[in-house]
Design a protein that fits this description.
Elements: H1 9-23, E1 29-34, H2 38-49, E2 53-56, E3 58-63, E4 66-75, E5 78-81, H3 83-88, H4 93-115, E6 127-131, H5 139-150, E7 155-162, H6 165-172, E8 177-182, H7 202-225
Parallel strand pairs: 1-2, 1-6, 6-7, 7-8
Antiparallel strand pairs: 3-4, 4-5
Helix pairs in contact: 1-2, 2-7, 4-7
Length: 226
């Protein structure tokens, strides 16, 4: 039984790892955490299941005059747009492209910073476990799913500690499986379901990715020696 709120992202990741071990064949899988908040969750999962960890930098596309209101999202070359919202708010194609251009630049900056010259993982034939700290609208996760599809992942599993009913329902039509430990009846924001929801900074993301890469290198050494 899941007791809310979660202590922190690492604790939520440990709980998710247990559920994933029961429901998903992880013998040929990679954990892809949505940066930045999903990285501690993904780190805990990767550590527990002895899997490689990488990031997907998905960026929300905010309404030009109200950036916190998402009109879509991008991840890699994939994009999602809420066409109904664009029409209702009379947001022009030029305004949308301007926001996309800005967010693509930030996405590229973060990918270069986080990977530290490491190449992005090849997903062909692998199960991609897409992780975030929660799902509110699900727009960034939807873009991440479509990005992983474009990279020919064999299967895509969304794994989150908590999410809204609408977001989880929408993503089930796009992913091969959606594992969400808790779907509260009244959902306002992801942070309300954590006791510690401190902001995750770039330095923490880089540290966790580096630690995960070091762990995998140590795991491979005995195999290579043999």
């Amino acid at each position: 039984m899941i007791h809310l709120p979660f202590a922190d992202r690492l604790g939520a990741g440990n709980a998710l790892a247990l559920e994933l071990s029961r429901r998903v064949d992880t013998s040929n899988a990679v954990v892809l955490a949505l940066a930045r908040g999903g990285v501690p969750v993904g780190f805990a999962i990767a550590r527990s299941l002895d899997l490689p960890l990488d990031v997907i930098v998905a960026r929300k596309l905010g309404v030009p005059w109200q950036p916190e209101l998402a009109m879509g999202a991008i991840a890699g070359s994939a994009r999602t747009l809420n066409e109904g919202m664009l029409a209702k708010l009379e947001i022009s194609a030029a305004e949308v492209e301007k926001v996309i251009f800005r967010e693509q630049a930030e996405m590229k900056r973060r990918e270069e910073l986080y990977r530290a010259s490491q190449p992005a993982p090849e997903l062909a034939g692998l199960t991609a476990i897409l992780v975030d700290d929660g799902l509110a609208t699900g727009s960034t996760m939807l873009a991440a799913i479509r990005h992983a599809r474009k990279l020919h992942a064999a299967a895509i599993v969304v794994a989150v500690p908590v999410g809204s009913r609408d977001a989880c329902g929408q993503l089930r039509s796009e992913a091969d499986d959606v594992i969400c430990l808790a779907i509260p009846d009244f959902f306002y924001a992801v942070g309300e379901w954590y006791r510690d929801f401190s902001q995750v900074g770039d330095s923490e993301v880089r540290h966790l990715l580096a630690e995960s890469r070091e762990r995998m290198t140590k795991t491979l050494k005995p195999t290579l020696a043999g």
